[in-house]
Amino acid sequence: MGFFDSEIVQQEAQNLFLDYQQLMQLGSEYGKFDREGKKIYIEKMEELMERYRIFMKRFELSDDFMAQMTVKQLETQLSQFGLSAQAMFDQMHQTLERMKAEVERQL
Questions:
Q1: Which has the closest alpha carbon to 1: 64, 55, 47?
Q2: CB 84 within 8 A of CB 78
Q3: Which end of the chain is less crowded, N or C, counting CB atoms within 10 A of the terminal residue's CB?
Q4: Which of 85, 77, 99 is nearest to 52 (CA)?
Q5: How does 55-64 read in b/e, with b if 16+ C-beta sit within 10 Å?
């Protein structure tokens, strides 16, 4: 069975995509959130990023040809922006850390 034939992989991909869409939609109202709402939003984004990191690691560790091609495509796309996958995750983490610091400064 190929990597993408796995029901678990398909379900997690779908869940990640839907959760990401919902958080992005919700994030458009971020400025209107109270302090606790912002903290919850940041926490949910951190959880999503960790799930995505794990999901991508599964691709990297897989021997499946299509999984390896997916990793190569992502690397190619990111390199066009001067990024690696690790740099992308690092930047997301830094952004969330800045958001947390901003929330902490609020009264």
A1: 64
A2: yes
A3: C
A4: 85
A5: ebeebeebeb
Quick one: tokens of 2? 């190929």
How many CA within 13 A on the CB side of residue 83?
A: 13
Q: Which two tokens stand for residue 90?
A: 């690092």
Domain ranges of the chain: 3-105
What does the pLDDT look like over 61-101, one tens digit per residue? Answer: 999 999 999 999 999 999 999 999 899 999 999 999 999 99
For residues 87 and 98, give the distance between their C-alpha atoms in angstroms, rounded to a whole number: 16
3 and 67 in contact (C-beta within 8 Å)?
yes
Q: How far apart are CA 19 and CA 42, in angstroms?
A: 13
Q: Residue 4 and residue 41: Cα distance in Å, rounded?
A: 30
DSSP 57-74: HHHHH---HHHHHHHHHH
